[in-house]
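Appendix B, example 12.
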Amino acid sequence: MIDPKELKLGNIVLNPRGDEGEVISIDREHTWIMVGGKWGDGERWLHESLEGLDLTPEILEKCGFIDPAGNGWGLRLYLDESREIVQYLQDGGLIRYQTRSSGWTTQLPHIKYLHQLQNFFYCLTGQELEVKL
């Protein structure tokens, strides 16, 4: 179940059938999602019937994350020359925000789903996270 306060237009979520869809409208009781990339394919669902899409390595790669070392230890998304979002696979896939210049790291255990990562990315950059599903 997703709290509708977590959603914004453009977020990717799962409908009760397990189909991925993009949020195109939110009202008091329902969220409209576009399934299949066509505006005519909008579906209306109660907020509590939608689920988040888990942040698997495959999903992160579709968001532009890479494994720069090629060793399978972690995936990184470089925001600019000094900041990155990292998922270390050996610690259960915990998402972290890091600055490379200072080595400062913040663990983000509350970011478990794609829509949460999309919102975090937007807060950091003011841009939408490109997701190639």
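The first strand starts at residue 12 and ends at 14. The chain is about 15% helix and 30% strand.
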